[in-house]
């Protein structure tokens, strides 16, 4: 049963492939605490207080974001399956006409 | 293979073709697509040409084909694509084809005429049926009302009713729905409100028999009193194109009529279906052949059109045409001649003869699917003059490279690579799509350019260490900082003295710069210098490309009088700047120290290259410097700079007066030698070529002799060759060359050229700064997009972040694609194009040639498809 048109479903496929690859990789980089992503963590304001507490906060942020990215990648996987199904059914319906 | 360096060598050939074989020969040549025919009958008007009748017959056939195709499309019958293109038909088959087309066209016309008749009949009947059905309701209402009145009449014994009912007339009909309001108003006006109009929607859409459009109609009944009103209503109805139908007033008659009509409708429907089936069958069978036929007809038309370019021999025994042929393809043309003659069964061979000409041949660069895109970029500026150095060869590398300098980002490069790979891997599939749309066509034609651009931007992105504005720590950063210092707000100023480990990052920009506060300060100065270095090298390369041109066109004096002063001017000023940049990079570092040696090469003593350069141009002394620093980077720098500036200034008059003076001197010599015209190297060379080629033709003539054909005729033809050439052409060719240029003209031309070059060295060098500006803009824009959009999703705490990431990623990806890849990509592309057209090619490229347009069926059919 087609819900989205052929163009939207192709758009969804491309976006979700991109999303899976990029978010999957970003998850890995977060998991290993890549420096380049240090600015993209929740609550990383260093207020000059306890340095150890700050470090643990940063580490928690890294793991949290790693999991978030992976889950978002899974969501994109679901999007991919949905769009691919849509694309396929669009193709079938256009063939049957 | 060296053909891409210059355009191919061309020669003008004369074709002598027997009239019987002409059609076949031209057909063979059209299949190979190697020759460009010259119109020898330009002065004749279209109707005086020899093959006018044939061309007109083809036109007629094309018209019929177009008609059939329109009909086929109207019935939505699929026209299958042909896999193999048919060859041009034998002239004998033309009559068959013509007859077939005529028959098919007549058939289809008959079908459609009878279908229109049947359909209008059908429409009338359906409308009548609807009128009867709908009016039933109105009449019922009226009868009821009348009955009510009758009842009343029984009570009041009023005898008015029968008179009233008898006098009330009506007109029933059908009108288009959109006309109803106007119609109603008009009726009201003409009768001053005395007409009672009832209407009801037909409910189903009807089909216009002529156009096949859908129509919505409304049934109406107008009740009135008196004959005069009736005629008025009828007039209004015909004015509004309403169709009126006779409608009996009694119920029984109406019912009977309705039954009759329903029966007739059923019959008609059957007939209609059968006609439709038959038409469909004919159209499907035609559709199978349609593509073949139209290709055959357009080939045929092209052949006769080309034959119209030919001259007829005085004895009317052969057709003579002139064409440009690439030297390498002469054997193909000869084979086509032999094949064409043999397939016509003619006993007399056709042959070709190379003739010498002073006219400049067309430019032909043999391209393949990879090089075509790049060649198109160059040809869009101007087609190269004949045998001029072709910039497309270098563009293959320099174009993607300069693009990538502005577009350096691994992430965006990967996105672009994906698009390019898709277009290249599905090349055949995409190429077979028709009606792709103009923009898709442009991108598809440039797919290999896009591929190279994306690969190069992967490289430059790696050097800039940018992937979606983030950096990659591949080899381990060579800067040492505390973790807390980097993560804080705004980053940290990187001072090499405190944080640098001492050995450089292995390749590219160190990833630590992503967090540095002075990132832009560093990258600005770095990229600006880089773009000057690249630009000056690119321009020097462009000036060097004049040498092959001078050598090829035998203008050796220009190497001395043009190339060397140009080179000296460019190098002594701008290459010197590049040298200064490198000296500065190597000599100065961030070492702090107390000894004078160390201080002199420290960062505080690093001079500004720009100030050096300005002072050099203004012939000024270097201003005072800080304590411990030296005024110049090395001792003899001021002396060297003075020498350079003097050399540069001297080179300008050399450029300006050298060529005109040489012209004056040689011209004097020539006058002394009784005005002998100096032989143009190009012409001389072509004469040598033509000598070789006559040998080839002689060989083929020998071959024809062995076949036992009329030798005498060949000889006669060759002797008469000059006679056959129209005098206007010979005149035109000789008129083109060796125009006596006056000294003043040469001087003015040279003055313009010199001023242009001298000013352009400055402005073009500055123009290369766009490399820096665009690259910086691209990096900044992608940084902004990340921090303003994606960062917002990533900094949401907890598992709510998943949703934020999911949604914001889509937004970020969309903007990355639309703004950074597409828009920035296009702007970088345009700037690269400009750098090539203006800054690079202006140094050596004339681009005054005309393109070789071979007679090729493939090209003709492609053009037709695009229309």
TrEMBL record, chain A:
Its main location: membrane. It is found in: Membrane. InterPro entries: Ribonucl_Kappa (IPR056552), RNase_K (IPR026770). It is a multi-pass membrane protein. Pfam families: V-ATPase_su_f. The chain crosses the membrane at residues 12-32, 65-84. GO terms for cellular component: membrane. It comes from the Eukaryota. Keywords: Membrane, Transmembrane, Transmembrane helix. Belongs to the RNase K family. This is Uncharacterized protein.
Automatic annotation (TrEMBL), chain B:
Pfam families: V_ATPase_I. Residues 94-121 form a coiled coil. It is a multi-pass membrane protein. GO terms for biological process: proton transmembrane transport. Keywords: Coiled coil, Hydrogen ion transport, Ion transport, Membrane, Transmembrane, Transmembrane helix, Transport. One of its GO terms (cellular component) is membrane. The keyword Transport applies. It is found in: Membrane. The chain crosses the membrane at residues 401-425, 445-464, 530-551, 563-586, 598-618, 639-658, 798-823. Its main location: membrane. The keyword Ion transport applies. Belongs to the V-ATPase 116 kDa subunit family. PANTHER family: V-TYPE PROTON ATPASE SUBUNIT A, VACUOLAR PROTON ATPASES. Essential component of the vacuolar proton pump (V-ATPase), a multimeric enzyme that catalyzes the translocation of protons across the membranes. Required for assembly and activity of the V-ATPase. This is V-type proton ATPase subunit a. The lineage of its organism: Eukaryota, Metazoa, Ecdysozoa, Arthropoda, Hexapoda.
């Amino acid at each position: 049963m087609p819900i989205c048109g052929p163009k939207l479903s192709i758009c969804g496929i491309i976006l979700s492939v991109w999303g899976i690859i990029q978010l999957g990789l970003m998850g890995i980089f977060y998991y290993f605490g890549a420096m380049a992503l240090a600015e993209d963590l929740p609550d990383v304001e260093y207020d000059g207080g306890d340095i150890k507490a700050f470090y643990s906060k940063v580490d928690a942020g890294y793991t949290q974001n790693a999991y978030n990215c992976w889950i978002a990648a899974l969501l994109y996987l679901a999007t991919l399956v949905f769009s691919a199904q849509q694309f396929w059914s669009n193709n079938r319906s256009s063939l049957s006409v | 293979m060296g053909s891409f360096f210059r355009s191919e060598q061309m020669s003008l050939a004369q074709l002598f073709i027997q009239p019987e074989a002409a059609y076949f020969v031209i057909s063979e040549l059209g299949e190979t697509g190697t020759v460009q025919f010259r119109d020898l009958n330009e002065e004749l008007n279209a109707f005086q040409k020899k093959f006018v009748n044939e061309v007109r017959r083809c036109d007629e056939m094309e018209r019929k084909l177009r008609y059939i195709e329109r009909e086929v499309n109207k019935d939505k019958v699929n026209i299958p694509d042909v896999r193999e293109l048919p060859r041009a038909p034998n002239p004998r088959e033309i009559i068959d084809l013509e007859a077939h087309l005529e028959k098919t066209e007549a058939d289809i016309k008959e079908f459609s005429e009878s279908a229109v008749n049947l359909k209008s009949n059908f429409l009338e009947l359906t409308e009548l049926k609807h009128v009867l059905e709908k009016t039933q309701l109105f009449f019922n209402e009226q009868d009821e009302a009348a009955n009510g009145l009758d009842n009343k009449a029984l009570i009041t014994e009023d005898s008015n009713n029968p008179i009233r009912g008898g006098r009330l007339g009506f007109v029933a009909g059908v009108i288009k729905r959109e006309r109803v309001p106007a119609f109603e108003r008009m009726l009201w006006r003409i009768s001053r409100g005395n007409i009672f109009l009832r209407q009801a929607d037909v409910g189903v859409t009807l089909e216009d028999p002529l156009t096949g459009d859908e129509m919505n109609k409304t049934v109406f009944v107008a009740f009135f009193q008196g004959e005069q009103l009736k005629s008025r209503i009828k007039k209004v109805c015909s004015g509004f194109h309403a169709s009126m139908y006779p409608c009996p007033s009694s119920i029984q008659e109406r019912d009977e009529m309705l039954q009759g009509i329903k029966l007739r409708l059923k019959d008609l429907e059957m007939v209609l279906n059968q006609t439709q089936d038959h038409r469909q069958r004919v159209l499907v069978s035609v559709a199978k052949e349609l593509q073949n036929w139209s290709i055959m007809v357009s080939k045929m038309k092209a052949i006769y059109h080309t034959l119209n370019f030919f001259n007829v021999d005085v004895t009317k025994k052969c057709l003579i045409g002139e064409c440009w042929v690439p030297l390498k393809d002469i054997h193909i043309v000869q084979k086509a001649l032999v094949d064409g003659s043999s397939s016509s069964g003619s006993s007399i061979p056709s042959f070709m003869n190379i003739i010498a000409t002073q006219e400049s041949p067309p430019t032909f660069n043999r391209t393949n699917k990879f090089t075509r895109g790049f060649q198109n970029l160059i040809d869009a500026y101007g087609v190269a003059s004949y045998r001029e150095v072709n910039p497309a060869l270098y563009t293959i590398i320099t174009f993607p490279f300069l693009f990538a300098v502005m577009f350096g980002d691994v992430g965006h490069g990967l996105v672009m690579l994906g698009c390019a790979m898709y277009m290249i891997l599905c090349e055949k599939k995409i190429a077979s799509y028709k009606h792709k749309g103009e923009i898709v066509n442009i991108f598809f034609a440039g797919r290999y350019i896009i591929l190279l651009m994306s690969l190069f931007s992967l490289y430059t992105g790696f050097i800039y260490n940018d992937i979606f504005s983030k950096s990659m720590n591949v080899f381990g950063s060579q800067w040492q900082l505390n973790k807390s210092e980097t993560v804080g707000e705004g980053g940290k100023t990187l001072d090499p003295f405190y944080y640098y480990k001492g050995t450089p990052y292995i390749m590219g920009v160190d990833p630590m710069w992503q967090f540095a506060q002075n990132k832009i300060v560093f990258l600005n100065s770095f990229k600006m210098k880089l773009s000057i270095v690249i630009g000056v090298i690119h321009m020097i390369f462009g000036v060097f490309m004049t040498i092959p041109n001078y050598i090829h066109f035998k203008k050796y004096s220009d190497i001395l009088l043009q190339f060397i002063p140009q080179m000296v001017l460019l190098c002594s000023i701008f290459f010197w700047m590049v040298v200064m940049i490198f000296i500065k990079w190597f000599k100065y570092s961030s070492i702090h120290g107390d000894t004078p040696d160390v201080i002199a090469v420290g960062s505080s003593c690093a001079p500004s290259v720009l100030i050096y350069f300005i002072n050099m141009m203004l012939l000024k002394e270097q201003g005072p410097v800080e304590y411990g620093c030296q005024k110049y980077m090395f001792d003899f720098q001021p002396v060297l700079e003075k020498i350079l500036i003097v050399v540069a200034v001297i080179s300008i008059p050399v450029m300006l007066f050298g060529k005109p003076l040489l012209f004056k001197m040689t011209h004097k010599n020539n006058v002394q030698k009784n005005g002998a015209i100096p032989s143009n190297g190009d012409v001389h060379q072509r004469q040598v070529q033509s000598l070789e080629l006559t040998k080839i033709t002689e060989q083929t003539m020998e071959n024809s002799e062995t076949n036992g054909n009329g030798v005498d005729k060949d000889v006669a033809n060759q002797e008469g060759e000059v006679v056959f050439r129209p005098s206007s052409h010979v005149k035109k060719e000789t008129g083109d060359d060796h125009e006596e240029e006056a000294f003043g003209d040469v001087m003015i031309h040279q003055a313009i050229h010199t001023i242009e070059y001298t000013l352009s060295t400055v402005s073009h060098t500055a123009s290369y700064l766009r490399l820096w500006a665009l690259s910086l803009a691209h990096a900044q824009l992608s940084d902004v997009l990340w921090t303003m959009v994606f960062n917002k999703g990533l900094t949401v705490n907890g598992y709510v972040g998943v949703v934020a990431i999911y949604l914001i990623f889509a937004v970020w990806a969309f903007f990355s694609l639309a703004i950074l890849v597409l828009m920035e990509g296009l702007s970088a592309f345009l700037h690269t194009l400009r750098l090539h057209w203006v800054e690079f090619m202006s140094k050596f490229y004339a681009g005054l040639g005309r393109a070789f347009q071979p007679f090729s069926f493939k090209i003709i059919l492609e053009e037709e498809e695009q229309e």
